[in-house]
Amino acid sequence: MVISEKFLDAAGAEIKEYYHGELIFSEGSAPLYYYQVVRGKVKLSNLHKDGKEFLQNIMSEGQAFGDALLLITSLTQWMQSLWSTA
Questions:
Q1: Cα separation of 55 and 61, whole Å?
Q2: Which of 38, 42, 68, 78 is most buried by its number of CB atoms within 10 A?
Q3: In terms of Cα–Cα distance, which of 41, 43, 63, 67 is closest to 55?
Q4: pLDDT for the residue numbered 10
Q5: What pLDDT is recorded for position 55?
Q6: Number of Cβ atoms within 10 Å of the Cβ of 49
Q7: Is the distance from CB of 81 to CB of 70 less than 8 angstroms?
């Protein structure tokens, strides 16, 4: 899901620059943001215990990631709050 930069600006989104090799978020951590690639490429991968890397995808300009995980995390938290108040 790609959202127009105009809409993102109106919603208060920020552009953050990451450098080659810099970690954006790690496996197992809850994503805090929707990420959209403005320039460059982003590698999505998992690192196995034996040190081997499993490449999930390479995102390029105009592509987005983190949105599904963000929605799933929000839904899970919402469901947990429903169960704790029941």
A1: 18
A2: 42
A3: 43
A4: 92
A5: 92
A6: 5
A7: no
**Are 38 and 15 within 8 A, CB to CB?**
yes
Residue bearing tokens 């197992």? 28
pLDDT at 18: 92
| Beta strands 64-65 and 35-36, pairing class | antiparallel
Reduce the DSSP state of residue 79 to 3 states and report it.
helix
DSSP-assigned states of every residue in 48-72:
-TTS-EEEEEEEETT-EESHHHHHH
Contact 44, 59 (CB under 8 A): yes
Collect the ranges in the chain with pLDDT lower than 50.
none
Q: Which residues lie below 8 Å from residue 76, measured CB to CB, with a gap of 6+?
A: none
